[in-house]
Structure formats: structure tokens, C-alpha cells
Specification:
elongated, 776 residues, Rossmann fold, four-stranded parallel β-sheet, 6 domains, six-stranded mixed β-sheet
Length: 776
């Protein structure tokens, strides 16, 4: 969650940030939590600029009067400790009390309540995926009027790239001298037509295009039509030669800007209503938004209904939008059909006379998602289509509409009850009107595509929000970026028309409904791993991200792939209940499943040397260990098939004590058992004869000749077989002996009478040896 400029991991907290943090903690801090999100790709930034009045509450002043004094229909009553002039009938502050009124004595000011729904709106935008940043006058350096506008734009030039800002919502008084003003632009400053009275045009366009120089000629009048004229500064302008994007005004916008006007005379209740309505509009279920696929078209005069027909034929019908047409169509008659009409009217409109009553009837009959009109206008009316009174009285605010009001002055910021604002409060969701005069066609045109007159702007806006399905801010700024102009009055259209409402709102907004594929309970044995892929979608079939909790340190979940992993160790036996919840924008889905980790018995670990050597009649101790990772008791025994009475199992010791008569190699199996599983190891025990049993016989040295034999106690051999197979017999311990020879080969003749042959008799165990030398 990010509130204020510096909340996103920055140490500083400005005054407005602190105030909003308190609000958030009270209203929805416990719900959303304040933990920083996992770092990922930068989110689109959504900036909200609040006027001082919105932050602290409106301060409304009335004439103060003497207590209990009555004069005509006004009475003096005490409110919040102050005596103020009230209307005796409705018991509310009476703003018409003048200083000359005998009841009035001085000026009394009442502090109103601040907005209550801002935290809900911020939370809603964050759930939609935006990084929301809130700014107040302290952040941009304050000021009023032109100073405030310059300070705001300077701050936005810094913060837009820094915070990846894409949307800007201004909430405050739009009058050009306020602390959150519309910027006064001068599109007609260089006009030479006799009828072109020069005046400033209030506009929020100034805050959307941030890299151009809106006062390129430096004369203090921003947004003048025309290129710099260095020889005659009086007719210079603020557009660079050739339309350079690096100098002067350009239409390559950086921010999509909308505004919710706030007037002290109205208070915060209207703002809270608009914020709540916007939240509800964007969070409507998909099944409930079918009514939006319709548009009401109204045109004053027989020379203007071509506007509605082009929108109907080229945009509404191809996109399966219904329509309700209210035209001045008295040119049509049953005989000549539309022969007397200034433009083609192949079918009858729903109403043949353009009037407020017929528009209201069509509005409530069709229940449109959008309304487009072309007519003359004033600050409180589109003649003869809609009025502030009709909007406040007859429109159904449960089905709010998008409007493009191709009229003059409908968004006059100085008028508290201007028509665009009244529609935004009553019956509208995003309204576009002109703050001053707008300029349009005086006769039917064959096409409105690509134009920048007010009718073409309305047609283009319809195409963008219906066919291209863009939100209000994108549609409005894209059509001005793409469509050219060549006259100051067309540039004035771009400056004068402004968007009231959330720039992110779209005809196609709805709250997706999430669903999670069924998840069965899972089983897992200790020492094993589990891989499970969790899947969720919304009611349109789009994938939805998930989160799983609580995760043990041996569990992991990848929200990008939906892969859940569990790697259970041998101390993780138990049942774990895991909650799976969808994330992102939409109606959340939640499931739970159990992961049962079964206990796995681990066999004991037996360690011992696998070979042992012992002399008969002696003892040795061979250490061993038997451990169990589960902590079970281990019993160590020998295998019944390998039992020797001279081997004893002790506490970690194997005692080997063979008798003096034991000889040879024996195999002994040791078994470790923890009650559930066992392991065994076999060791080789070699029992060796004592040294005294292997004493050699005396050397025998004799002189022999061919065919003579050598006699010993054990063997009789002839000379010619000495080196072949001589059986030497056995020693006193019963061990066989082996022989080797040197100096002769089997069957050989002596080379000389005195040749010598050495035969070496070696006891197999290698303990003793006997040498015999035969002389020939």
C-alpha cells in the first residue's frame, strides 16, 4: 500500500500522508495490511491530487446574526456555538443572507466534514493493480491560481517517471483561482476574426502533457495557437515550427487526466457519492452490465442529426449497441420521407422533436450506457436536450452513463451547478463537456472520422470507448493525440473539453468472479516430496493468481505457475490445513485442503569394522554403535545362523575370545532392531594360530646325486620333481606348506656335481618358514 509521495519505502512522510495513513488504519488498515508487496515489475502509478478543502473539510461562511431575531422569513439560530442566519422553513444555512439584512451582524464560518470514502477508493484502485500515490498542496508547494498550476505541473514532471504514473485524478475546486485549479490557456489569443473575442480557457490538458513548453514564446499566455513569430511577438504562439515534440505544446500526453470537482457550497457528500458510485460501477458483476450496450443520441436542429446517424451506423450497430434517437426531424413526412432533411434519415428516430422531456423519456426507457449530443449550450443546459434541474430531478443514478456533450460551456468551472458536474453527481459516471465555447459543423458532414470539431470529437470518443473498448481517460487523450487541427477554434476544442470523473473507468468494467479448481486433500510420507499445481480462473476464463498460507519453511508456492511444493523432513509428521485464495482484481475465491504428513520409521544405523583378526586363545574388543534417527530404543543381537559361544555382545562392544583350538575365518552377523525395522552387518573374524605352534623343523642339508632322494620328516622327493609338485606335508598345527625353488627346473639334470638348489618351504599363514638346501 502506498499513500502519499514518500510511502513507497521512503523515510519521509508529509502532512497529508500522515493524515491519510490514520484514516486508512482506522477504516481498512486491518483488512488490507501494511506489508510491502513482493518486488515485481513496476505497477502503473495512479496519482490523486487533493485540494486543501478535501483534505481538511470545507469551511462555509454565513452572515452571523443576533440570537432569536426574526426578520421576514429568516431566523437566527445557533449551530456549533455560532449564530447563523437560517431559512425558517428548511432549517439549513441560508446562503442568500446579505450583510444588509437586518438579521446579519458579521460573518460566521462552519467547518464541514472531510471526505469519508477516499480510503475505500484508494483500496479499490490498489486492488485493480495500481500503485496509488496521494498528493496535497504541501507536496507541490501550494499556491493559488496560475502559481498552483505551475507548481503542480512541475511536481508531476518529476514524479511521473519516478513513480511510473499513468493516471491523474484531480479532486478539488476547478476554478482557475483555486489551490487545485484548471490552468487558463489562450488558444484564441492570436485570432484575427472580428467575432473572435479573446479570453482564457480553463483546462486540465495542461497536466496531461508534461514535456512540452506551453509558453514557448514567453509572453505569459499559455497554450496559444500558432508558431513562434520572432518578428512580431504580438501574433506569436506556443507551437514549435513543424510540430516538434521537443519544443512548444505537443499532444503526446504522459498522463490521462480526470477531475472530480469539489465545491465548498456542496460539501463532501457529493464527492463521497461519486467515489462510491465509481467503485460500484467498476465492481459490478459481468452478468449485470448488459444494459450498458446502448446509447442515447440527441441533436438539436435539422442540420445536426447527421451526428447521431453517423455514430449509430458506424459505431453502435456494428458493435451490437442499441440506440435511442431524439432529433428535430420535422423535415421528415410520410410522403416525401426525408426529402426535405439536410441529411439522410432513412428511418424514423424514436422522438421527432428534440426536447428535455423526450430525452428524459428516452434516457429512462433505454437505460443507455452512453449519451452523445450535439447542440447549443450554456453552463447549466444543453439546449434543448438536458438541464441541471432535469439531471438532478429525473435521471436514474443507479445506471450512470458516459457522456460527450458537444455543446458550449457545459463544464464552466466557476458555476457550482454546471451541467457536466451535475451529471457526474446525478446520472453520469464520466462526463465530458466544454469549459468555454466549443466549435462544430454548421451543416451535415459526410464523415466525422479524424476531425477535431466538437461533433467529430464526440464521434471519435464513441469509437474509442465502444469499438476500441478504452477507458475514458485513454479514449479522450488518444483522440486528441491522433486527430490534427489547423485552426485556433479547433485547438480551443482540445483545450476547452475536459473529463469529469475517474479517467480509469470504462463501459466494459466489471468485477471478475474467481474460481479455484477443486483441490483434494493430500498425503505425504516423511522424507518424500509433493508437487501440486493449483489452477484458478475468472468467469471469463482468464487465469487468476493465487496465494497459499500458512506456508511452513519446507513448503513453497509460485504464484506465477501455481506450483505448490512440499519437501517433508522426518520431523514434519502431522496434519497441515492450507488456505488457497485468489489474488488480484475480482471477487475472491477461497479453498482449503489438508496436507497430512505420515510418520516414517527410519531404520537404525549400525557401524562396526567389517574385519577382525584374533589369535586363538586370546581376546579382542571390537567397538560398534547402533543409532536411531527417530530416537527409538535399539536392541542389538546376533543372527541365529551365525552364533559362536566365543563372541559376546556388550554395551557398544563385541567381545571376541576364541579358544586355543579355534582356527580359521568365521562370519558373524550383528543385527540392530528398533521394533519396526532392522539392519544387519556381517564381519569377518579370522582366528590365527599362536606363534609357538608354528616353530620350523631343523634345516636339512644333504648332498645328493641324480636319482637320490632327500628324506625329511614329512616329504620324500626326487631331484627331478623338486620344482614341480612337491608335497611337503603339514606342520604341527595342521597347516599346509607351500614351496618355491631357485636354481633348477623340474626334470632338469644337475649342471655340475656341485650345483646347488634351494627349496624354500613357507607355512601358508606366513608365521614361520623352513629352508632346505639340497646340494648336488
Amino acid at each position: 500500500m502506498k499513500l502519499g509521495v514518500y510511502v513507497d519505502r521512503r523515510p519521509q512522510l508529509n502532512f497529508y500522508t500522515k493524515m491519510l495513513i490514520v484514516i486508512c488504519l482506522v477504516f481498512w488498515g486491518p483488512i488490507l495490511g501494511l506489508a510491502d508487496p513482493v518486488e515485481e515489475a513496476p505497477k502503473e502509478g495512479y496519482a490523486i491530487l487533493l485540494s486543501e478543502m478535501v483534505l481538511s473539510g470545507p469551511k462555509v461562511c454565513y452572515p452571523e446574526c443576533a440570537p432569536d431575531l426574526s426578520c421576514e422569513k429568516h431566523t437566527c439560530q445557533q449551530i456549533d456555538g455560532m449564530n447563523v442566519c437560517l431559512d425558517s422553513n428548511i432549517q439549513t444555512p441560508y446562503t442568500a443572507c446579505a450583510g444588509a439584512n437586518p438579521c446579519a451582524e458579521a460573518l460566521a464560518c462552519l467547518q464541514g466534514e472531510s471526505a469519508q470514502k477516499l480510503p475505500d477508493f484508494i483500496a479499490h484502485k490498489e486492488e485493480k493493480g495500481f500503485a496509488v500515490y496521494v498528493f496535497g498542496p504541501e507536496d507541490w508547494g501550494g499556491g493559488l491560481g496560475a502559481d498552483a498550476a505551475t507548481n503542480i505541473r512541475t511536481m508531476l514532471q518529476i514524479k511521473t517517471p519516478e513513480l511510473n504514473l499513468k493516471y491523474l485524478l484531480l479532486i478539488g475546486d476547478p476554478t482557475p483561482d483555486s489551490d487545485l485549479p484548471m490552468k487558463e490557456l489562450w488558444p484564441r489569443n492570436n485570432a484575427t476574426e472580428w467575432w473572435a473575442v479573446n479570453y482564457a480557457v480553463p483546462s486540465d490538458y495542461f497536466y496531461g502533457e508534461l514535456d512540452g513548453d506551453w509558453d514557448l514564446d514567453g509572453d505569459g499566455k499559455y497554450g496559444e495557437f500558432g508558431n513562434p513569430n520572432l518578428t512580431n511577438l504580438d501574433i506569436s504562439g506556443d507551437f514549435a515550427p513543424g510540430g516538434s515534440e521537443l519544443l512548444g505544446v505537443n499532444r503526446g500526453y504522459e498522463l490521462k487526466v480526470g477531475r472530480i470537482p469539489v465545491y465548498s457550497e456542496v460539501g463532501m457528500s457529493a464527492l463521497d457519492h461519486i467515489l462510491t458510485k465509481t467503485i460500484n460501477y467498476q465492481r459490478a458483476s459481468y452478468d449485470s452490465i448488459g444494459w450498458r450496450k446502448g446509447a442515447l443520441l440527441a441533436a438539436e436542429g435539422g442540420n445536426r442529426f447527421f451526428f447521431g446517424e453517423l455514430i449509430r451506423d458506424q459505431i453502435l450497430s456494428p458493435n451490437n449497441f442499441a440506440s435511442y434517437r431524439v432529433y428535430d426531424a420535422d423535415c421528415w413526412n410520410e410522403t416525401d420521407l426525408d426529402a426535405n432533411c439536410m441529411s439522410s434519415l432513412p428511418t424514423l428516430p424514436d422522438a421527432m422533436e428534440c426536447s428535455v422531456d423526450n430525452v428524459i423519456q428516452g434516457w429512462n426507457s433505454l437505460v443507455p450506457g452512453a449519451v452523445f449530443w450535439l447542440s447549443h449550450g450554456s453552463s447549466q443546459s444543453a439546449i434543448p436536450i438536458m438541464s441541471t434541474y432535469a439531471a438532478e430531478t429525473y435521471l436514474d443514478d443507479d445506471y450512470p452513463v458516459f457522456t460527450f456533450q458537444a455543446s458550449c460551456n457545459n463544464s464552466t468551472p466557476e458555476a457550482v451547478n454546471n451541467l457536466s458536474y451535475s451529471l457526474l453527481v446525478n446520472g453520469g459516471i464520466a462526463t465530458i463537456g466544454a469549459t468555454r465555447e466549443s466549435h462544430g459543423p454548421g451543416a451535415p458532414w459526410p464523415s466525422l472520422s479524424g476531425g477535431s470539431d466538437n461533433a467529430s470529437m464526440g464521434w471519435e470518443y464513441a469509437r474509442h470507448i465502444i469499438e476500441l473498448q478504452e477507458n475514458a481517460g485513454t479514449a479522450f487523450f488518444e483522440l486528441r493525440k491522433d486527430n490534427g487541427f489547423g485552426k485556433w477554434w479547433l485547438w480551443q476544442n482540445y483545450a476547452a473539453f475536459n473529463l469529469f470523473g475517474d479517467p480509469d473507468v470504462s463501459l466494459y468494467d466489471f468485477l471478475p468472479v474467481h474460481s479455484i479448481d477443486p483441490i483434494a486433500d493430500q498425503e505425504l510420507a516423511e522424507g518424500e516430496s509433493l508437487e501440486l499445481v493449483l489452477v484458478a480462473t475468472d468467469d471469463q476464463g482468464s487465469p487468476v493468481a493465487l496465494e497459499v498460507s500458512p506456508l511452513e519453511d519446507w513448503m513453497s508456492f509460485d504464484p506465477m505457475t501455481g506450483e505448490f511444493l512440499a519437501d517433508a523432513d522426518y520431523d514434519h509428521a502431522g496434519v497441515y490445513t492450507l488456505s488457497v485464495q485468489s489474488t488480484g482484481y475480482g471477487e475472491k475465491a477461497v479453498q482449503a485442503f489438508n496436507l497430512e504428513v505420515y510418520n516414517t520409521n527410519r531404520a537404525p544405523v549400525l557401524s562396526i569394522e567389517t574385519e577382525a583378526f584374533v589369535t586363538a586363545g586370546q581376546s579382542i574388543e571390537v567397538p560398534f554403535s547402533a543409532d536411531d534417527a527417530d530416537g527409538d530404543d535399539v536392541v542389538v543381537s546376533n543372527s541365529p545362523t551365525a552364533e559362536f559361544d566365543w563372541v559376546t555382545i556388550g554395551e557398544g562392544i563385541l567381545d571376541i575370545s576364541p579358544g586355543s583350538a579355534v582356527r580359521g575365518e568365521y562370519f558373524y552377523t550383528l543385527v540392530a532392531d528398533d521394533g519396526e525395522s532392522s539392519v544387519d552387518m556381517t564381519i569377518s573374524i579370522t582366528v590365527e594360530a599362536p606363534p609357538e605352534d608354528a616353530s620350523p623343523a631343523a634345516d636339512i642339508t644333504e648332498t645328493i646325486t641324480t636319482d637320490d632322494v632327500v628324506a625329511t620328516a614329512d616329504t620324500v622327493e626326487t631331484v627331478d620333481t623338486i620344482a614341480e609338485e612337491v608335497v611337503m606335508g603339514a606342520d604341527s598345527g595342521g597347516q599346509a606348506v607351500s614351496k618355491s625353488s631357485s636354481g633348477c627346473t623340474a626334470g632338469s639334470e644337475p649342471t655340475s656335481p656341485w650345483s646347488s638348489f634351494l627349496i624354500l618351504f613357507v607355512v601358508t599363514l606366513g608365521l614361520v618358514y623352513r629352508r632346505s638346501r639340497f646340494l648336488v
